[in-house]
Design brief:
Layout lengths: L18 E3 L25 H10 L5 E6 L2 H5 L20 H9 L2 E2 L4 H6 L2 H14 L5 E6 L1 H5 L4 H12 L3 E4 L9 H22 L14 E7 L10 H6 L3 E7 L4 H4 L7 E4 L6 H11 L3 E3 L5 H15 L2 H29 L3 E6 L2 H12 L3 E7 L4 H10 L5 E4 L3 H11 L3 E4 L1 H8 L4 E4 L10 H17 L2 H6 L3
Parallel strand pairs: 2-3, 2-4, 4-5, 6-7, 6-8, 8-9, 10-11, 10-13, 11-12, 13-14
Antiparallel strand pairs: 1-12
Helix pairs in contact: 1-8, 5-7, 8-11, 12-13, 13-18, 14-15
Bound molecules: FE-MO-S cluster (CFM).
């Protein structure tokens, strides 16, 4: 029977459908993308977190305005490392903009009086103030949250007024917490609303589009790549070396001007396929720009991504160059990876992140010779679980939207040597004597591409080989 009865779920039988053991014919998937059962203390984030924290947040040169009581904005400040510049790919003199992005968090700080009488004036003033303080800002993104969506503030109207006044684009994203079952809905809302807004802007201001004479036949965007701990660094140059130009990422270290040119590429290469396939699909429908699905984690997958992208352009010289680049990278990383492989081989591992990274990493961990014994996601959809189940061995435990009790039981049942997980769970799991690794923002990344895998392997090795686990297992 593929569905598993965990002891902790005897009192919440609704959870049973979310917990499965992969069977031989791999026919069963856990129930997913469903509302959290009352009584179950979910670890999910809200839709606003998905819109602000994940998809919109990394854009470097816009004011990110949270229209909300201040608590909703708190966790957006300094919470994710290195999503954007410093480095200068697209625009000189970015430091002024970096201040917008990482050092400041903008919020309307809605109070009771504003909730009663409406917060639109306050929002307008906050935006004008923010533009006044940050003269280098190229535009603004506004996010509603539960409070401001419920009172019905017309943020779209404020966006238009402010945009007219300051002469810069202002995008309003409405993804309040209650609009979906998890942060995944916020990704979705951001994608659709941003695309709609972008289309209108490009119609009204065709000068923002990439001019014909500035296009090349080899322009791509990296969609759903958020530059976590500088993940773009080991990846973007691979494409450049084979003659491909990356116009922008959506949205890691992205600049607004470049984002406005998203539809001007020849191909969209989609990395996080949960949070951003939506916009790639919309661009395909609207502009006939195809998209491909890739992974930049691990050797097998990065090589495949590069090969397939070169093959898309059908250019013999590019395909040959891709092979050369892959070989160069392998030569550079193999000695280090061999060292780690020897020490990590056969170690058991459980993976728990938001969604797609679980299946991306099953393959990457194969490159290190490790064995995956449990896979958990916070908000994976059916297609994520299909890929997870396809990639793991029968007998692997799979849990959708786990709570802490289920995580405890998973650890007891599967006895992993390492748990790739987030900050919320790490202390709990370490108390069981199991090493953890910050899998959302990383320990010391980047982890993507060929070179990133060496960092990943190093951090894994440091985690599992730390002498503390031996001491922790001694009886006191
Ligand atoms: Fe995509 Fe992401 Fe993920 Fe995600 Fe996330 Fe993330 Fe993630 Mo944390 S966009 S779905 S909402 S790959 S923040 S960079 S690590 S849970 S699996």
């Amino acid at each position: 029977m593929p569905v598993v009865q965990l002891k902790c779920n005897l009192c919440i039988p609704e959870r049973n459908k979310h917990t499965i053991v992969v069977d031989e014919d791999k026919s069963t998937l856990p129930k997913c993308n469903a509302p959290t059962v009352p009584g179950d203390l979910t670890e999910r984030g809200c839709a606003y977190a998905g819109a602000r924290g994940v998809v919109g947040g990394p854009v470097v040169d816009v004011i990110q305005m949270v229209h909300a009581p201040v608590g909703c904005a708190y966790y957006t400040w300094g919470s994710r490392r290195h999503l954007g510049d410093g480095y200068n790919w697209a625009m000189p003199g970015v430091l002024e903009n970096e201040a917008n992005h990482r050092r400041h968090c903008y919020c309307t700080d809605m109070q009771e009086k504003d909730v009663v009488f409406g917060g639109m004036d306050k929002l307008k003033k906050a935006l004008l103030d923010a533009f006044e303080i940050n003269k280098g800002a190229k535009g603004a993104f506004i996010y509603t949250t539960c409070t401001t969506a419920l009172i019905g503030d017309d943020v779209g109207l404020v966006a238009k007024e402010v945009s007219k006044e300051v002469g810069k684009p202002v995008f309003a994203c409405s993804a309040p917490g209650f609009c979906g079952v998890s942060q995944s809905k916020g990704h979705h809302e951001f994608n659709f609303q941003f695309y709609k807004w972008l289309m209108k802007l490009r119609e009204e201001h065709p000068e923002v589009c990439l001019k014909e004479e500035d296009k090349t036949p080899y322009d791509i965007n990296l969609i759903g790549e958020y530059n976590i701990d500088w993940d773009l660094l080991p990846v973007k140059p691979l494409f450049e070396k084979i003659g491909i130009r990356v116009l922008t990422a959506f949205t890691g270290n992205a600049y607004l001007d470049d984002l406005l040119r998203l539809p001007d590429a020849k191909l969209n290469v989609v990395h996080c396929q949960r949070s951003a396939t939506y916009i790639a699909e919309l661009i395909k429908q609207g502009f006939d720009v195809p998209y491909s699905r890739v992974s930049f984690f691990g050797i097998q997958q990065t090589a495949k991504a590069l090969r397939e992208t070169a093959a898309f352009f059908g250019d013999e010289a590019m395909m040959k160059k891709a092979e050369e680049v892959i070989q160069e990278e392998l030569d550079a990383v193999t000695p280090a990876l061999d060292w780690y492989r020897e020490r990590l081989k056969g170690k058991k591992l459980a993976i728990y992140v938001g969604g797609p990274r679980v299946w991306h990493w099953i393959k990457a961990m194969e490159d290190l010779g490790m064995e995956v014994v449990a896979c958990l996601t916070t908000f994976g959809h059916t297609d994520d679980y299909q890929k997870i189940v396809e990639r793991v061995k029968p007998g692997t435990l799979v849990i959708d939207n786990p709570n802490e009790f289920e995580i405890e039981e998973m650890i007891e049942k599967t006895q992993p040597d390492l748990f790739l997980t987030g900050l919320k769970e790490k202390y709990l799991v370490r108390k069981f004597g199991v090493a953890t690794l910050n899998s959302h923002s990383y320990e010391c990344g980047p982890y993507s591409g060929f070179r990133g895998l060496v960092n990943f392997a190093r951090d894994i090795y440091q985690a599992v080989a730390a002498p503390v686990w031996k001491i922790a297992q001694e009886e006191f």
